[in-house]
Structure to design on (232 residues):
């Protein structure tokens, strides 16, 4: 199985801050990497697929980058609705696997 | 747009079988996509259980493969999961999701979209 490791597991930030979340795969997954946002009590929703393609309707303050085994999700300027947990997921091969999540909390 | 809705018992006894159904609306389960189950124990991360294609082909997470069966009912636009010999460790919110497949620049990509709202299944006597 491909292991996905996210860091940090949690972070505190203020509205307007720039936030970076990293995701590392245990082997190369090329650019088969997706990002999801999960608000409390809700299902995850896709933010970014294929490493850097924004899902329709997702604000442009979200951006994804990377290739191989190292990936990044950046929120350029945090908004109140961005406080949530973020998961990366590799779609290179089954079993499909997720990172452990990064909880973004209000400072 | 496509919507998914999980249904099934909220409580299952230890050593019993967990059974859930996902109803797909706004689109056909016979489209060129796979259909997945994902679970999330309380306060924990996401675990992919497995997926099915409308032909009946399946892929399972090896960690659950010996206990899980996913099936499809095209006439009802539904797919289902059964997990047997459950323990407290199987307590989780269970989500169904479409594994959307799109070719981008000649490369097949896939991601989960949309998801059902999720249903909490507790294993308890």
């Amino acid at each position: 199985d491909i292991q996905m490791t996210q860091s940090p597991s949690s972070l505190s930030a203020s509205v307007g801050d720039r936030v970076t979340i990293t995701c590392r795969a245990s082997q190369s997954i090329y650019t088969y990497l997706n990002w999801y946002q999960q608000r409390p009590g809700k299902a995850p929703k896709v933010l970014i697929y294929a490493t850097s393609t924004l899902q329709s309707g997702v604000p442009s303050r979200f951006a994804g980058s990377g290739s191989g085994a190292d990936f990044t999700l950046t929120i350029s300027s945090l908004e109140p609705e961005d406080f949530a947990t973020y998961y990366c997921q590799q779609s290179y091969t089954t079993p499909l696997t997720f990172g452990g999540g990064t909880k973004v909390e209000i400072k | 747009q496509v919507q998914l809705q999980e249904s099934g018992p909220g409580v299952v006894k230890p050593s019993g079988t967990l059974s859930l159904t996902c109803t797909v609306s706004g689109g056909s389960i016979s489209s060129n996509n796979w259909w997945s189950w994902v679970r999330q124990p309380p306060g924990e991360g996401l675990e992919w259980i497995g997926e099915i294609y409308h032909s009946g082909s399946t892929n399972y997470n090896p960690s659950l493969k010996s206990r899980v069966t996913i099936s499809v009912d095209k006439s009802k636009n539904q797919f289902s999961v059964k997990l047997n010999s459950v323990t407290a460790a199987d307590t989780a919110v269970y989500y169904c999701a479409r594994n959307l497949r799109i070719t981008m620049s000649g490369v097949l990509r896939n991601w989960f979209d949309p998801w059902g709202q999720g249903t909490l299944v507790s294993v308890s006597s």
